[in-house]
């Protein structure tokens, strides 16, 4: 459990094939409601080991548990070695090689941070290649809901070009880190002076946050093609 209502799960393909994904893409898990109706749920791939992908590579996801949710019932019932069906990868919420920006502003709430975990090796390569800087602003209600927080903090502490900025809306960490903030993540954006000449922003998570952060960035002058969005909507 990453948080009281979020679970980290690791899968491996059972057909010997490679799941060749781009960081930022997602898989769809297929299952049935109790009445037999087929349905599916989408989960961003959180795998971040940076190794060449092969048949033994893990497929990691973070799942939000929703009371009474059909997907929650599926994942809660799983034991080690159980099998699920999935398709993918899908999606274009990815870092784009033609980009020549100097900085990435990555903004997330909840499980919307999982694509950024997968992007860490790619961001490190982009820094080595052309010196990009990265600011990851992550909105959570409390330190207990800061998904993968220890990993992001450790990554930032060893890389001066990467800043991890947790934004706590209800309960702050004690003691606070220098980059901790109070309030909503979209309200912290202005502090980092979004710049149309050097920045590309990625927004992922709660739709209200994505819309609010989008407006902040547009007011700052970022062109719409430099603001890339993925909204997460909880579903039962």
TrEMBL record:
Signal peptide: none
PANTHER family per record: NADH OXIDOREDUCTASE HCR, PROTEIN RFBI
Cofactor: [2Fe-2S] cluster
Listed name of the protein: FAD-binding oxidoreductase
Top-level taxonomic group: Bacteria
Lineage: Bacteria, Pseudomonadati, Pseudomonadota, Gammaproteobacteria, Lysobacterales
Span of domain FAD-binding FR-type: 1-96
